[in-house]
Amino acid sequence: MISTNTNWDAKNALMAKQPIYAMEIAGQTTVYTTADLAAAGVTGTLPTYQPWLMTPQGAAQSIDPVQARSTLGELQCDVVDVGGAIRTLVGTTVLGGETLTLLAGWPGIAWSEFVVVQTYQIYKIVPASGYGRWTFYARDWQLLTKKTLAVHPENGGLLTQDNPWYLSGTPCEIVQALALYGLGLDAGRLDIDGIQALDSPTEGIYSPWRPFLFALTEPFTVLQFLETEIFKPSGLYAVVTPEGKISLRSWRPPAAGVSPVFAFDQDNMTKLPEIDRLEVVNEVVFRYDYDGSAYEQEVYFLEATSLTTYGRTTQWVVESKGLRSEWGAYGFAQWAAGRLFRRLAGTPTGLRGGCPTAKIEAFLATATVWVGDYVTLSHPLMPDLLTGSLGVSNRVYEVIARDPDYAQGKMQYTRLDTGLTGLPAAYQWGAGSARPLVIGTGTWY
Q1: Could you give the CA distance from residue 171 to residue 89 in angstroms, rounded to a whole number?
Q2: Same domain assignment for residues 115 and 215
């Protein structure tokens, strides 16, 4: 969720409004805006600015929670070249690699109340057709994790059979080790608090497990390694926050329970939701205990109810060279398979098929919603797949795709119904608690 403030929210809630966008470049004193800030009544101490920015083309972001992959678009900002000022700036200053921050605000609020919409890294600046403006292209900082890691971070030598880097820990610990130690990323590029929270005993997701032990002996692409070896086996996927930080989301809901950040309904959507379903996944294969040439262990997990109901098998295969039996790989695999079945096997009561998705188009006022957020969806004309009736009320979804269209003033989202509606929070034990542990029909997750 994009962090906002009271005055910003009040302006955003108005029916008739025109947002003001501002582009900041690290190291540059001039801010480029889509409106004259002073003339628009923006108060407070204003930056040095030029109203030469055209309405930006927002960057889309989507996640594939099944394959643990993230796809991110690029941010495109066009600035009119008044008097050759941008041409001179680009020709005399190295801007590639600098941080580009896109802010949004409204006429009549303070400059300090503008909010950060996206924070990306500039990778190229080129003149547009006719040379009347320049286009700034920026991508997320996750690009840095696409680097190939070839050097042992402890001794500076190449990774080889004779010079292996031994890496072990929880999934979140390995992500931090690779990003901060292996690649040398600045800690400010990671959502450290959010990542470490997944390891907390309160959440109880990964703190009991340290099933990974890797002996890294050859160069590897870090992002591909994370997606294949860590994210997929662990039910994780990466998202990039509005501040440009790399963060992680788990497919298990928070221990405190699901807290939707926004309510979508017919008043803030522009058309009927498009309903689809994911494939039913009811067979999981884990391969681990890699000996350097082959996996010594292969275990299968089947969801019997799903197999009986749908009469078909869709396999989900995990191969991780770091999962070790002696570190609890089997128990970890069993946990991951159970979580996957809970989400994708089509077994929740009344679901009658694969996990539903809903693609919606909404007004720009919903732009504070981010990928990975939980939201609710209500619409009187939307079919209820669980009952066959007409109308859905306060169904909980997870946002798995976000595509802003600032020029047209609308947003597109894809949401995943993960069967979390009505799911209670984790039971909080206290003095004198006498709650039995029930598996199968209890409120465990």
Answers
A1: 44
A2: no
Residue 10 clears pLDDT 60, i.e. is over it = yes
For 146-149, the CB contacts below 8 A with 24+ separation are: 146/221, 146/222, 146/223, 147/183, 147/221, 147/222, 148/219, 148/220, 148/221, 148/222, 149/178, 149/182, 149/183, 149/216, 149/219, 149/220, 149/221, 149/222
- Structure token digits, residue 154: 């402890």
CA distance 58 to 119: 11
Task: Convert the pLDDT of each residue in 28-60 to its tens digit.
Answer: 999 999 999 999 999 999 999 999 999 999 899
Token output for 198: 């997944």
Number of domains in the chain: 3
Q: What is the mean pLDDT of the chain?
A: 90
Q: Could you tell me how far CA 147 lies from the centroid of its own chain?
A: 20
Instruction: Spell out the residues 6+ positions from residue 244 whose beta carbon is closer than 8 angstroms to its own.
Output: 99, 101, 118, 119, 120, 121, 140, 141, 189
pLDDT digits (tens, 9 = 90+) for 77-99: 999 999 999 999 999 999 999 99
* Residue located via tokens 């197999």: 307
Per the structure, the complete domain to which residue 87 belongs is given by: 6-137
Q: Distance between CA 306 and CA 283 in Å, rounded?
A: 9
Please state, in angstroms and rounded to a whole number, the distance separating the CA atoms of residues 235 and 342: 12
Q: CA–CA separation, 188 vs 180, rounded Å? A: 10
Tokens 């802003």 belong to which residue?
A: 404
Beta bridge partners of 288: 297
Q: Residues with Cβ < 8 Å from 192, sequence gap 6 or more?
A: 176
Q: Which residues pair with 415 in a beta bridge?
A: 358, 399
Is the domain of 314 the same as that of 234? no
* 212 within domain boundaries: yes
- Cβ distance 176 to 192 under 8 Å? yes
Q: Is 199 within 8 Å of 173 (Cβ atoms)?
A: yes
Nearest-angstrom CA–CA distance, 411 and 208: 40
Looking at the fold, whether 23 and 132 belong to one and the same domain comes out as yes
* Residue where the block lists tokens 């302006």: 11
Q: Which amino acid is at 58?
A: G
Chain segment 136-166, per-residue pLDDT in tens: 999 987 777 778 999 999 999 999 999 999 9
Are 119 and 101 within 8 A, CB to CB?
yes
Whole-angstrom distance, CA of residue 280 vs CA of residue 334? 18
Q: Tokens for 116?
A: 């950060």
End-to-end CA distance of the chain: give it in Å, rounded: 24
Q: Within 13 Å, how many C-alpha atoms sit on residue 362's CB side?
A: 28
